[in-house]
Design goal:
By secondary structure, the protein is an all-alpha fold. About 95% of the residues lie in helices and about 0% in strands.
């Protein structure tokens, strides 16, 4: 009952369809017309082929009058086919324009909604308040930067001694390690030379004493022995 009443009201007071609904109806009617024209054109093309065959047959049989009449029908059929192609092209162009108009209408509706939203946002955005917020943000940012610098300097001062001591210990350890290696090398080199020289001198002394004792036969005096010992001591000191 409600549908019937609405249909009756539309019949009395006019059509209350939206532009989008009307656009869809126009598109459907255009597509229907194009399909009907395609069917008519296909029928005309079949008639064209049939007329061509009949014209050839009449001309072959010598019926020139019939061939001429059928030739006129052929020309007329080809003309209709061309008109069908033109009508189809026009209908497709109209359909494309309707689609473009529908897209433009949708875009306009979207722009209208966006404009309303932007207007509401602009009305809510107060420039003086935003400027004060930005100034407060910059101020707090500067305060935070100053506090970070103070904390970093305080931490550097608190941990500077320990780091310096560790670094000093590392440097001293490296230096002592190098010096220890050098001292060990010197100690390994130095005793070999002195000990070798001393041992050779002692060997010469021990060998010389028995030889001199056997040569002199114990008959030399104490003065000669003291002089020989003094001479050998002097030689050891020089070496």
């Amino acid at each position: 009952m409600d549908d019937r009443r609405s249909i009756a009201m539309e019949g009395l007071f006019g059509n209350s369809k939206t532009p989008a609904q009307r656009m869809k109806e126009y598109q459907r009617s255009i597509k229907k017309s194009v399909r009907e024209m395609d069917r008519e054109r296909t029928t005309l093309e079949r008639n064209e082929k049939k007329l061509m065959q009949e014209i050839k047959k009449s001309a072959k049989d010598g019926h020139m009058d019939a061939a001429r009449i059928k030739a006129k029908d052929l020309v007329r059929t080809r003309s209709y086919i061309k008109k069908m192609y033109k009508m189809k092209s026009h209908m497709e162009a109209i359909s494309l324009r309707l689609t473009t108009m529908q897209s433009s209408a949708q875009m306009a509706a979207s722009m209208k909604g966006i404009t309303k939203i932007m207007g509401k946002m602009n009305s809510k955005m107060q420039l003086p308040q935003i400027q004060s917020i930005m100034q407060e943000f910059e101020k707090q940012n500067e305060v935070m930067g100053m506090k970070e610098e103070m904390m970093e300097s305080a931490m550097d001062e608190a941990f500077a001694d320990d780091e310096d001591e560790d670094e000093e210990d590392a440097v001293l350890g490296a230096i002592m390690a190098e010096l220890g290696v050098e001292v060990a090398n010197q100690l390994n080199d130095a005793p070999t030379q002195s000990v070798t020289a001393g041992s050779s001198a002692a060997t010469e002394t021990a060998a010389a004493q028995p030889a001199s004792a056997g040569a002199e036969g114990g008959g030399a005096g104490d003065g000669d022995l003291d002089a020989e010992l003094q001479r050998r001591l002097d030689n050891l000191r020089r070496t």
